[in-house]
């Protein structure tokens, strides 16, 4: 399409959008606005126009996007009329957008909170408890801290207070972040605020600690909530003389917010993860009341992991094979195993790519697994009966029989993948566990 017509198309769309908007056909208007913006952006990118024209298109796009955003909000909530097109949102309207507790009189605070809201994981990651292999004690502790108090609030009154801070520590790649994702999925009644240290560190003097404060206020406003801080060590390492002033302040604010005078942390759980727990500040360490060691997976957990990572890809491994694989991966972390499996999963693909001969086999049709067809093609060696000389380019898309993953593939990947966790770190982690932690 020539660029001139693209621009024209965009203008047409936007005209229709404003018309629909005027006629209160918001759903269509939203679609048209979005569509139009796409075309405008396309026009900017490929058009030979001058910078000024581009700039004015960009400005317009911004307006349309703002309007689209408002319409989206309105359609989602199904309440209150959106403000008329073109006019600024009224004060009242803004309030209902921003939700719970924040006071609108402080634009700074609003800005910070909106920055934080951007950093929060809203979607459920969809990792279930059963997707995490082993780590039974850690799962129990997390259920105790997260699920039970929400399900049976009366059970946790009086002196029986749920845990307020849990630290997951262990070698890299053992599933700490993964477990936190499972918590987010399974605790679907509470808000899961996942922030990383980079969300909380600002280059402006004084803003970082405000961000920390706002994070906790946001959590309180939406309780029950879980604040998950991955790699806490980067925020809360022990106080030393040469650390920067702002790092010290972030830490102080953390200490106060997690357990300070006048801060009610009912219904808030702070979940932290780190692989170098010994650098944590002692006071921060104390605030993580439960410190759970997430060790390298044991043999049976490794077998489960091999199975989990294979998923429903076609393979012909049996229980014995899984046991053998588990037995020969002592010292491998969950992440290492996932890499072995991923590499093994790719090998049938390479087989198809490099094959010089194919033969006919019967099997479930790739289109519909319930139908068995007999004209599928699979790679074979040139000496096989029925071998035909051809390469994958000659095979039609729906005629390829997927070669299953075999034990040979697994062993080959295993022989090329080394464990990533070193002895030294394990000793340090063990020592930390002895001193401060508990088995997970
Ligand atoms: N127990 C487990 N069960 C299933 N999969 C696991 C397990 N442990 C690790 N994995 C796999 O390894 C990947 C990496 O794990 P994760 O990111 O949780 O590691 P981590 O402990 O947070 O490491 P780091 O300390 O380096 O951040 C996960 O995405 C998952 O696929
Ligand atoms: Mg992690």
UniProtKB/TrEMBL annotation:
AAA+ ATPase domain sequence ranges: 162-298
Enzyme Commission code(s) on record: 3.6.4.6
Domain MIT, first and last residues per copy: 3-82
Composition bias, Basic and acidic residues: 89-98
Keyword set includes Lyase: no
Enzyme's top EC category: hydrolase
Membrane topology: Peripheral membrane protein
Disordered: annotated span: 76-115
InterPro entries given in the database record: AAA+_ATPase, AAA_lid_3, ATPase_AAA_core, ATPase_AAA_CS, MIT_dom, MIT_dom_sf, MT-severing_AAA_ATPase, P-loop_NTPase
Source domain of life: Eukaryota
Pfam families referenced in this protein's UniProt entry, alphabetically: AAA, AAA_lid_3, MIT, Vps4_C
One annotated Gene Ontology cellular component of this protein: late endosome membrane
Family membership: Belongs to the AAA ATPase family.
Name assigned to this protein: vesicle-fusing ATPase
Organism from which the protein derives: Aphidius gifuensis (Parasitoid wasp)
């Amino acid at each position: 399409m020539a660029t001139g017509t693209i621009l024209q198309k965009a203008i047409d769309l936007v005209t229709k959008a404003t018309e629909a908007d005027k006629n209160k056909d918001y759903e269509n208007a939203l679609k048209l606005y979005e569509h139009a913006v796409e075309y405008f952006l396309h026009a900017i990118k490929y058009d030979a126009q001058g910078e000024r024209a581009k700039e004015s298109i960009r400005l317009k796009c911004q307006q349309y996007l703002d309007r689209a955003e408002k319409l989206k909000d309105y359609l989602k909530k199904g309440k209150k009329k959106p403000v008329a097109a073109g006019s600024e949102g009224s004060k009242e309207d803004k309030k209902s957008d921003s939700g719970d507790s924040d006071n609108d009189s402080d634009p700074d605070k609003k800005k910070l909170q909106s920055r934080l809201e951007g950093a929060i994981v809203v979607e459920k990651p969809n990792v279930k408890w059963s997707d995490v292999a082993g780590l039974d004690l850690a799962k129990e502790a997390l259920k105790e801290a997260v699920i039970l108090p929400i399900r049976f609030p009366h059970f946790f009154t009086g002196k029986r207070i749920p845990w307020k801070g849990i630290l997951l520590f262990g070698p890299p790649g053992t599933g700490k972040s993964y477990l936190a994702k499972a918590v987010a999925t399974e605790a679907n009644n509470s808000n899961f605020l996942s922030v990383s240290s980079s969300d909380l560190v600002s280059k402006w003097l004084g803003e970082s600690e405000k961000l920390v404060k706002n994070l906790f206020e946001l959590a309180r406003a939406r309780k029950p909530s879980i604040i998950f801080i991955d790699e806490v060590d980067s925020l809360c390492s022990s106080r030393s003389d040469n650390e920067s002033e702002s790092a010290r302040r972030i830490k102080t604010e953390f200490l106060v917010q997690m357990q300070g005078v006048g801060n009610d942390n009912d219904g808030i759980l702070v979940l932290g993860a780190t692989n170098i727990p010994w650098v944590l500040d002692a006071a921060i360490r104390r605030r993580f009341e439960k410190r759970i060691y997430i060790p390298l997976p044991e043999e049976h957990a490794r077998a489960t992991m091999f199975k989990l990572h294979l998923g429903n890809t076609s393979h012909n491994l049996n229980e014995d094979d899984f046991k053998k694989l588990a037995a020969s991966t002592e010292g491998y972390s969950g992440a290492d195993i996932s890499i072995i499996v991923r590499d093994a999963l790719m090998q049938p693909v390479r087989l198809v790519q490099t094959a010089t001969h194919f033969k006919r086999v019967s099997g479930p049709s790739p289109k519909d697994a319930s139908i068995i067809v007999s004209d599928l093609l699979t790679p074979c060696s040139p000496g096989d009966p029925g071998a035909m000389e051809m390469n994958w380019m000659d095979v039609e898309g729906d005629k390829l029989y997927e070669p299953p993953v075999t034990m040979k593939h697994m062993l080959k990947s295993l022989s090329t993948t080394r464990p990533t966790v070193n002895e030294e770190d394990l000793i340090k982690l063990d020592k930390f566990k002895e001193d401060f932690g508990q088995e997970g």
